[in-house]
Structures are given as structure tokens and as C-alpha cells.
Design brief:
hydrolase activity, Rossmann fold, 11 helices, HAD_hydro_SerB1, metal ion binding, membrane, alpha/beta, 16% strand
């Protein structure tokens, strides 16, 4: 059988999962003592902002730099264990059932499946494994003696995603005009423009406008569902997310009130 010339490229956050992989494991990191309560709150606030309004290119860069600073010195094996232990209660319940069906459809069509993500590979790999996706193109962090140094060696954002897709297509012989790409973010317009079948999934305002102007397909995913149902997994994951959201919104409210008093 000749190798496939078609691939389906998927962004991860808010495209395959109804959350942010970069922030999803914050509770596990807090309980393991890797981050402080203040840092955990900071993660929750950033996640809440991302989920409600998305992130501009500049905000993504600022978030990257802050996270890189935060994880300096972390042990890779410990991170992997935390991610593995919390996958079932945090991320698996947040996988869109529509995304799972779409991935299965492309698999049935004989297409290669690729996750292209700005999140760190160590966070993306277990999610890809759950979905049966072998190929990952993600942000790479430097590791020395089993510990993160805080240096990002490859940052997959914007045009870098498009470049990585072209490199992979050349390596594997994909015909990009036959390929598919899925994303929610305007920062991924370069990624979507690379392929012949770009699709906006739950698009933020900027991408929705661009997709409408270009005549791109727009999909709406609404049903997070565990890949492997387990008692209480859905409730645990969603409950934790609501708790985090309430905490974040309450903190924002306090900050706004304080700001108002300071201005008066």
C-alpha cells in the first residue's frame, strides 16, 4: 500500500479539548508542591481570560515567558507522573466528543493525524496518546539532567505552525492542497492557510470574521465527553473547572473593585 498523501492537522486547545492544556494540570502541580497558591491563582486567572476572550499573539508570548520562568528546575519524570495521574479527571472529560468523531472519521478515511500545538510536548503527548494520534508537533522545552531549564527551544505559534506543517509535508509526501487543518484561533490563520481544507472550530471573533470572508467551513463543538467513561470522571473534571472559574472571577472582581477605589 502506498503511503497516504493526506493529513488532518489539529490545533489542541479549544479545538480538541474544551480547555487549555497549558493550565489544565495546575491543580496537580499545586498539590504536588511545584507551584504556590499564588502561582495557582495566577494560572487560573490566565486560563479564565483565555477561555473567555482568547489570547492575542503578544499575550501568548507573555504567557510563554511566565510559564517558562515558573517551570525552571522542574523534574521531567515528576511532571510526567502528575500529568498521567490527573489526565482522567482533568483533561479526558474535556475532550470534545465532536472532535473525537472527526478524528475517527479522518482515521477511517486513511488520513494521517497530526496535533500541532503551542503547548509543551510533555503536556500534549498524553492527550495525543488517549486519542490514538502518533504524530505531534509542539513547543519544545530544554531539558538538562532530567530537569527543565526554563528555555524554550522551539515555540509553535502562528507562522511557526505553518512552517512545521510544510516541513512535515515535505518529509512525508503530503499534498497540502488535499490536507485538512482545524483551529479556533486567529493566531492560527497561517496554519489554516497552508492546506486546501481549512476549518474554523469554535472560532474566536477574529478567526470567525476571516473564515467567513474566505468561505472556510466553520464548526461548533459543544460536547466534552470522556474517551473512556469512568465513574465520576466527568463530574470531577467539570466541577474542578467551575471551582477554578469561580475563584478566578471572584479574584477579578476584587481587583476591579480595588482599582475603582484607588481611582476615586
Amino acid at each position: 500500500m502506498s503511503p497516504t498523501t493526506t493529513a488532518a492537522f489539529f490545533d489542541l486547545d479549544k479545538t480538541i479539548i474544551a480547555t487549555s492544556s497549558a493550565f489544565a494540570f495546575g491543580r496537580g502541580f499545586l498539590e504536588s508542591g511545584l507551584i504556590t497558591r499564588q502561582e495557582a491563582l495566577e494560572l487560573y486567572l490566565t486560563k479564565a481570560s483565555y477561555m473567555f476572550v482568547g489570547q492575542s499573539s503578544n499575550k501568548m508570548d507573555a504567557t510563554r515567558d511566565r510559564l517558562a520562568e515558573m517551570v525552571e528546575g522542574w523534574d521531567i519524570e515528576e511532571i510526567s507522573q502528575i500529568v498521567s495521574d490527573t489526565m482522567g479527571s482533568v483533561v479526558t472529560p474535556a475532550i470534545y466528543s465532536e472532535a473525537r468523531e472527526l478524528i475517527d472519521h479522518h482515521r477511517d478515511m486513511g488520513h494521517d493525524l497530526v496535533i500541532v500545538s503551542a503547548s509543551a510536548r510533555i503536556l500534549v503527548e498524553p492527550i495525543a496518546h488517549e486519542l490514538g494520534i502518533d504524530t505531534i508537533v509542539a513547543t519544545e522545552a530544554e531539558v538538562v539532567d532530567g530537569k527543565l531549564t526554563g528555555t524554550i527551544t522551539r515555540y509553535l505559534k502562528g507562522q511557526a505552525k505553518a512552517d512545521a506543517m510544510r516541513e512535515l509535508a515535505e518529509e512525508r509526501g503530503y499534498n497540502l492542497s488535499d490536507c485538512y487543518a482545524y483551529s479556533d484561533s486567529a493566531t492560527d490563520i497561517p496554519m489554516l492557510e497552508v492546506v486546501g481544507h481549512p476549518v474554523a472550530v469554535n472560532p474566536e471573533r477574529g478567526l470567525r470574521k476571516h473564515a467567513a470572508e474566505q468561505g472556510w467551513e466553520i464548526l461548533s463543538f459543544k460536547q466534552p465527553e470522556p474517551l473512556v467513561p469512568s465513574p465520576g470522571a466527568r463530574e470531577i473534571g467539570i466541577g474542578a473547572g467551575i471551582a477554578a472559574g469561580v475563584t478566578a472571577l471572584a479574584a477579578v472582581g476584587v481587583w476591579l473593585a480595588q482599582r475603582g477605589r484607588d481611582a476615586s
